[in-house]
Design goal:
By secondary structure, the chain is of the alpha/beta class. The chain has 15 helices and 9 strands. It is globular and about 55 Å long. It binds flavin mononucleotide.
């Protein structure tokens, strides 16, 4: 059973991946990286792909519209460093979809299949694909899509149980995980590994996917932002049937450690600015945190965040 930090554009940089791994994420995924950007040797794109250290079990997620783009991209970087390559067939953002990438691939399963085939042939790495239920309510096709992906060589599937048109709203429709599992039974050697994604906000949510729905793994996305403790909680719950929540001191310490890592990677000025949403997420849901959040909106250095977080301990 694999607990994975999901790809989250704008969040899962190496600082976050390092923190999540320290709390028990067994796999991490880069945020989505443009295959076209790689093919064009974009430096900005490459920054997203750095491991925090050699030991990281890192999957590279790529998005692109067709096999040729992926083929060109694979010539331009050391794919050997990654544990796996994941194809993004779920991103709903218009800018991505209009190029034929992300969830637009769900409308062209044969192209997704060709991409999988090309990556396998060129690299020999394990290949996974992350997709949705379908483009919209009228075109739910995840079972056919999954079948094409597996026939084309996919070793692993991740279903985000929403349609493209649902974006991130409404509830993930969990019943579909059962149908996907039924298509690829757990005990069959030809079955791919299946991960669940969607509404994993607690250790109990993760356990449900693993134990009730028979998933091989779970991806933690919004539920892990500002809450890397969820990995430890899930592992404890699975092992012992119970877990404890982090203390306020641990919350503060972890938020500051996350900031320190970002500072070590990007410098204090940049990190202080870019980490605002992340730092605020560490105090989300805590009573009386509005003053802390207000202080964070103007924070420009480590000390500003530390001063704000200290109020939590009062
Ligand atoms: C801010 C944000 C960025 C995301 N970026 C990516 C991404 O780069 N690649 C991807 O496959 N999914 C991405 N996702 C989708 C998540 O990985 C996940 O599938 C989705 O949030 C559902 O899980 P949740 O309901 O537990 O958050 C993103 C989601 C959010 C909210």
């Amino acid at each position: 059973m694999t607990l994975t930090l999901a790809p989250l554009a704008g969040y899962t940089d190496k600082a976050f991946r390092m923190i999540a791994s320290a709390f028990g994420a067994q796999e991490t995924v880069t945020e989505m990286v443009s295959a076209e950007g790689l093919a064009r040797k974009s430096v900005k794109t490459r920054a997203l792909m750095e491991k925090f250290d050699e030991s990281e079990n890192l999957t590279l997620q790529l998005f692109g519209p067709d096999g040729d783009t992926f083929k060109r991209a694979l010539k331009e970087f050391r794919w050997q460093e990654f544990s796996k390559i994941d194809i993004n067939a779920g991103c709903p953002v218009a800018k991505v979809v209009k190029t034929g990438a992300g969830s637009a691939l769900m409308r062209k399963p044969e192209i997704a299949g060709e991409i999988i085939h090309i990556i396998k042939e060129e690299t020999g790495l394990k290949v996974s694909i992350k997709f949705r239920l379908g483009w919209d309510e009228g075109s739910i096709n995840y079972l056919d899509f999954a079948e094409t992906a597996v026939k084309s060589g996919a070793d692993e599937l991740t279903l985000h149980a929403r349609t493209r048109s649902q974006l991130y709203s409404g509830q993930a429709r969990k019943e579909h995980f059962k149908a996907l599992r039924a298509l690829f039974p757990k005990d069959e050697s030809t079955s791919p590994l299946i991960n669940a994604s969607g509404d994993v906000f607690s250790a109990e949510d993760a356990r449900l996917y693993l134990e009730e729905y028979g998933m091989d793994g779970v991806m933690f996305a919004r539920g892990a932002i500002g809450n890397p403790f969820i990995f430890r909680e899930t592992r404890k719950l699975l092992e012992t049937g119970e877990y404890t929540l982090p203390s306020t001191e641990e919350r503060i310490g972890t938020a500051l450690r996350h900031l320190e890592l970002a500072i070590s990677f990007y410098g204090e000025q940049t990190a202080a600015r870019e980490m605002r949403k992340v730092m605020m997420s560490y105090v989300k849901g805590i009573r009386n945190s509005s003053q802390i959040k207000a202080m964070m909106t103007t924070a420009t250095c480590y000390q500003d965040y530390e001063n704000a977080l200290k109020l939590l301990a009062l």
